[in-house]
């Protein structure tokens, strides 16, 4: 699996204006729902909040990678929000978030493997400060896809 296999311009928003973590997550979950990645927004959002309560998903450098495992997930997906302004988000370096990459995975064992692969691919990509800088400055969906798929 490559990131290009799961990147979908329909689940990417740039110059997103949200006021807090909750609003950001709700907006991204709505994208999953609209594009039929999930069949129950409330159940999926509950799974995301459950994971959020278990530990920090802000990895630093204004990036957060929240995720949820739920039976409401129809297909593995990534929703990305590039925010206009930083929102408060618990993180490893005490910065908020300006790039939020939300992962949706099902609960069965095959999906768990996909989940770990996705996290690994994203973490590897985001270990490059230049990639993070490009994402922070991206202005459209096409740029986001190009940055993450190169």
From TrEMBL:
GO terms for biological process: phosphoenolpyruvate-dependent sugar phosphotransferase system. The keyword Transport applies. It holds the Pfam family PTS_EIIA_2. PROSITE patterns: PTS_EIIA_TYPE_2, PTS_EIIA_TYPE_2_HIS. Keywords: Phosphoprotein, Phosphotransferase system, Sugar transport, Transferase, Transport. InterPro entries: PTrfase/Anion_transptr, PTS_EIIA_type-2_dom, PTS_IIA_fruc, PTS_SugarTrans_NitroReg. Gene3D superfamilies: Mannitol-specific EII, Chain A. GO terms for cellular component: membrane. GO terms for molecular function: protein-N(PI)-phosphohistidine-sugar phosphotransferase activity. Residues 5-150 form the PTS EIIA type-2 domain. It comes from the Bacteria. Homodimer or homotrimer. Seems to be a monomer when not phosphorylated. PANTHER family: PTS SYSTEM FRUCTOSE-LIKE EIIA COMPONENT (PTHR47738:SF2), PTS SYSTEM FRUCTOSE-LIKE EIIA COMPONENT-RELATED (PTHR47738). This is PTS sugar transporter subunit IIA. It comes from Mammaliicoccus sciuri.
């Amino acid at each position: 699996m490559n990131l290009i296999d799961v990147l979908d311009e329909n689940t990417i928003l740039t110059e997103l204006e949200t006021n807090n973590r909750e609003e950001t997550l709700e907006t991204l979950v709505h994208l999953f729902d609209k594009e039929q990645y999930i069949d129950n927004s409330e159940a999926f959002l509950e799974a995301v909040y459950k994971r959020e309560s278990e530990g920090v998903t802000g990895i630093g450098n204004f990036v957060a990678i929240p995720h949820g495992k739920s039976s409401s997930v129809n297909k593995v997906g990534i929703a990305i929000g590039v925010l206009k302004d930083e929102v408060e988000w618990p993180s490893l370096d005490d910065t908020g978030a300006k790039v939020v990459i939300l992962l949706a995975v099902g609960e069965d064992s095959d999906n768990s493997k996909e989940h770990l692969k996705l996290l690994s691919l994203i973490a590897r990509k985001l270990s490059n400060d230049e990639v993070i800088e490009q994402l922070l400055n991206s202005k459209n969906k096409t740029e986001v896809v190009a940055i993450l798929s190169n």
